[in-house]
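Protocol step 4 of 5: obtain the predicted structure for the target chain.
Materials: sequence only (see below). No template structures provided, no constraints applied. The aim of this step is simply to have a reference model before the mutagenesis design in step 5. Sequence pasted as it appears in the construct record:
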Amino acid sequence: QVQLVESGGGLVQAGGSLRLSCAASGRIFSINVMGWYRQAPGKQRELVATITSGGSTNYADSVKGRFTISRDNAKNTVDLQMNSLKPEDTAVYYCNADVDGLLGLNRRNLEVWGQGTLVTVSS
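Step 4 output (structure tokens):
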């Protein structure tokens, strides 16, 4: 099985910074897009940022200029550096990856989600 494990969430004051990390493990041939999504209480899950294996990035308008996504293809990891945090950034943040991997004995394109990590920004 392919798994994503996130770390780095926590409580921070408005204006502060946090860095989220996510590591993929399992029987992986390659990973195309990796990204971060978030879900605030009572709201739908939304895209925060994505990055391709070639390094192309995409950000939600609400985080442009404050968040930076990066990845290490050799280690199958993706990070999210979050600066100038605002109370409205409070949410559970989920790592996501499009993985070319093995499911049982079969090679498959898999969409994998992490378990989520809570980010709380106090005002």
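Step 4 remarks: The mean pLDDT is 96. The two ends are 40 Å apart (CA to CA).
Proceed to step 5.
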